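If I may wish for something, please sit down with the protein I am sending here and say whether C-alpha coordinates and residues agree:
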Amino acid sequence: MRTYQGIATRTAYVITGQEADAEDAAQAGFVKAYYALDRFQLDKPFRPWLLKIVANEARNRRRAAGRRAGLQLRLAEDRPGDAAPSPEGTVLASEPRRALLDAMNALKEDDRLVIAYRYFLDLSEAEMAATLGVARGTVKSRLSRALGRLKQVLAEQSPEVTGADHE
Protein backbone atom coordinates (compact mmCIF):
# COMPACT_ATOMS: atom_id res chain seq x y z
CA MET A 1 0.00 0.00 0.00
CA ARG A 2 2.85 2.40 0.82
CA THR A 3 4.35 1.83 -2.60
CA TYR A 4 1.20 2.80 -4.52
CA GLN A 5 -0.55 5.25 -2.17
CA GLY A 6 0.76 8.37 -3.91
CA ILE A 7 -0.05 7.41 -7.47
CA ALA A 8 -3.40 5.93 -6.45
CA THR A 9 -4.42 9.19 -4.78
CA ARG A 10 -3.17 11.27 -7.74
CA THR A 11 -5.10 9.04 -10.14
CA ALA A 12 -8.28 9.50 -8.12
CA TYR A 13 -7.62 13.25 -7.87
CA VAL A 14 -7.43 13.61 -11.67
CA ILE A 15 -10.93 12.14 -11.83
CA THR A 16 -12.61 13.66 -8.77
CA GLY A 17 -10.88 17.02 -8.62
CA GLN A 18 -11.29 17.01 -4.84
CA GLU A 19 -8.56 16.03 -2.40
CA ALA A 20 -10.85 14.42 0.18
CA ASP A 21 -12.78 12.48 -2.47
CA ALA A 22 -9.52 11.33 -4.03
CA GLU A 23 -8.19 10.05 -0.71
CA ASP A 24 -11.47 8.23 -0.04
CA ALA A 25 -11.52 6.72 -3.52
CA ALA A 26 -7.90 5.57 -3.22
CA GLN A 27 -8.58 3.92 0.14
CA ALA A 28 -11.74 2.25 -1.16
CA GLY A 29 -9.78 1.13 -4.22
CA PHE A 30 -7.15 -0.51 -2.02
CA VAL A 31 -9.86 -2.34 -0.07
CA LYS A 32 -11.56 -3.52 -3.27
CA ALA A 33 -8.21 -4.60 -4.71
CA TYR A 34 -7.46 -6.57 -1.55
CA TYR A 35 -10.74 -8.44 -1.83
CA ALA A 36 -10.15 -9.02 -5.55
CA LEU A 37 -6.58 -10.32 -5.21
CA ASP A 38 -7.74 -13.82 -6.12
CA ARG A 39 -8.75 -12.43 -9.54
CA PHE A 40 -5.40 -10.70 -10.15
CA GLN A 41 -3.43 -12.36 -12.95
CA LEU A 42 0.12 -12.91 -11.71
CA ASP A 43 1.57 -12.61 -15.23
CA LYS A 44 0.25 -9.02 -15.49
CA PRO A 45 1.70 -5.89 -13.86
CA PHE A 46 0.11 -4.94 -10.54
CA ARG A 47 0.18 -1.13 -10.76
CA PRO A 48 -2.14 -0.73 -13.79
CA TRP A 49 -4.54 -3.29 -12.31
CA LEU A 50 -4.72 -1.34 -9.06
CA LEU A 51 -5.03 2.03 -10.80
CA LYS A 52 -7.92 0.75 -12.87
CA ILE A 53 -9.77 -0.22 -9.68
CA VAL A 54 -8.98 3.17 -8.09
CA ALA A 55 -10.07 5.04 -11.24
CA ASN A 56 -13.36 3.14 -11.33
CA GLU A 57 -13.98 3.92 -7.67
CA ALA A 58 -13.20 7.60 -8.26
CA ARG A 59 -15.61 7.71 -11.24
CA ASN A 60 -18.33 6.09 -9.16
CA ARG A 61 -17.84 8.60 -6.36
CA ARG A 62 -17.85 11.54 -8.74
CA ARG A 63 -21.02 10.33 -10.44
CA ALA A 64 -22.70 9.76 -7.10
CA ALA A 65 -21.83 13.30 -6.04
CA GLY A 66 -23.05 14.70 -9.35
CA ARG A 67 -19.93 16.78 -9.94
CA ARG A 68 -17.88 17.36 -13.03
CA ALA A 69 -14.21 16.54 -12.49
CA GLY A 70 -11.81 19.43 -12.54
CA LEU A 71 -8.08 19.09 -12.68
CA GLN A 72 -6.41 21.29 -10.10
CA LEU A 73 -2.94 22.48 -10.92
CA ARG A 74 -0.82 24.48 -8.53
CA LEU A 75 -0.38 28.00 -9.85
CA ALA A 76 2.98 28.54 -8.21
CA GLU A 77 5.29 26.14 -6.42
CA ASP A 78 6.71 27.08 -3.06
CA ARG A 79 10.44 26.47 -3.04
CA PRO A 80 12.12 26.69 0.33
CA GLY A 81 15.16 28.92 0.28
CA ASP A 82 14.15 30.76 -2.90
CA ALA A 83 13.52 34.47 -2.75
CA ALA A 84 9.85 35.36 -2.81
CA PRO A 85 8.77 36.05 -6.40
CA SER A 86 7.44 39.45 -7.28
CA PRO A 87 3.66 39.75 -7.70
CA GLU A 88 4.23 40.47 -11.40
CA GLY A 89 6.42 37.40 -11.78
CA THR A 90 3.86 35.21 -10.05
CA VAL A 91 1.07 36.41 -12.36
CA LEU A 92 3.19 35.96 -15.50
CA ALA A 93 4.30 32.47 -14.43
CA SER A 94 0.76 31.42 -13.54
CA GLU A 95 -0.93 32.55 -16.79
CA PRO A 96 0.24 29.57 -18.91
CA ARG A 97 -0.71 27.16 -16.11
CA ARG A 98 -4.14 28.77 -15.74
CA ALA A 99 -4.64 28.56 -19.52
CA LEU A 100 -3.66 24.88 -19.43
CA LEU A 101 -5.99 24.21 -16.49
CA ASP A 102 -8.89 25.92 -18.22
CA ALA A 103 -8.21 24.04 -21.45
CA MET A 104 -7.91 20.68 -19.65
CA ASN A 105 -11.20 21.28 -17.84
CA ALA A 106 -12.87 22.08 -21.17
CA LEU A 107 -11.99 18.60 -22.49
CA LYS A 108 -14.13 15.50 -22.09
CA GLU A 109 -13.15 13.12 -19.28
CA ASP A 110 -11.58 10.55 -21.62
CA ASP A 111 -9.27 13.19 -23.08
CA ARG A 112 -8.37 14.59 -19.64
CA LEU A 113 -7.58 11.11 -18.36
CA VAL A 114 -5.32 10.03 -21.19
CA ILE A 115 -3.35 13.31 -21.03
CA ALA A 116 -3.15 13.23 -17.22
CA TYR A 117 -2.09 9.57 -17.13
CA ARG A 118 0.75 10.26 -19.56
CA TYR A 119 1.98 13.70 -18.55
CA PHE A 120 0.85 14.23 -14.95
CA LEU A 121 1.14 10.69 -13.63
CA ASP A 122 3.93 9.65 -16.02
CA LEU A 123 2.43 6.25 -16.84
CA SER A 124 4.03 4.32 -19.69
CA GLU A 125 1.99 3.41 -22.76
CA ALA A 126 1.75 -0.17 -21.50
CA GLU A 127 0.52 0.98 -18.09
CA MET A 128 -1.96 3.35 -19.69
CA ALA A 129 -3.27 0.56 -21.92
CA ALA A 130 -3.73 -1.75 -18.94
CA THR A 131 -5.31 0.97 -16.79
CA LEU A 132 -7.70 2.08 -19.55
CA GLY A 133 -8.37 -1.49 -20.69
CA VAL A 134 -7.38 -0.83 -24.30
CA ALA A 135 -4.61 -1.80 -26.73
CA ARG A 136 -1.33 0.18 -26.81
CA GLY A 137 -2.11 1.42 -30.31
CA THR A 138 -5.41 2.75 -29.02
CA VAL A 139 -3.56 4.63 -26.28
CA LYS A 140 -1.34 6.27 -28.90
CA SER A 141 -4.27 7.34 -31.06
CA ARG A 142 -6.35 8.54 -28.10
CA LEU A 143 -3.43 10.54 -26.75
CA SER A 144 -2.74 12.07 -30.15
CA ARG A 145 -6.38 13.06 -30.64
CA ALA A 146 -6.65 14.38 -27.06
CA LEU A 147 -3.53 16.51 -27.50
CA GLY A 148 -4.96 17.85 -30.76
CA ARG A 149 -8.20 18.81 -29.00
CA LEU A 150 -6.22 20.38 -26.15
CA LYS A 151 -4.24 22.45 -28.64
CA GLN A 152 -7.48 23.51 -30.35
CA VAL A 153 -9.05 24.58 -27.04
CA LEU A 154 -5.90 26.51 -26.10
CA ALA A 155 -5.95 28.25 -29.49
CA GLU A 156 -9.61 29.21 -29.07
CA GLN A 157 -9.05 30.49 -25.54
CA SER A 158 -5.77 32.33 -26.16
CA PRO A 159 -4.87 32.81 -29.83
CA GLU A 160 -1.70 34.74 -28.88
CA VAL A 161 -0.41 31.78 -26.81
CA THR A 162 -0.49 29.31 -29.71
CA GLY A 163 0.16 31.78 -32.50
CA ALA A 164 -3.27 31.17 -34.02
CA ASP A 165 -4.97 34.10 -35.70
CA HIS A 166 -8.76 34.01 -35.79
CA GLU A 167 -9.31 37.43 -37.41
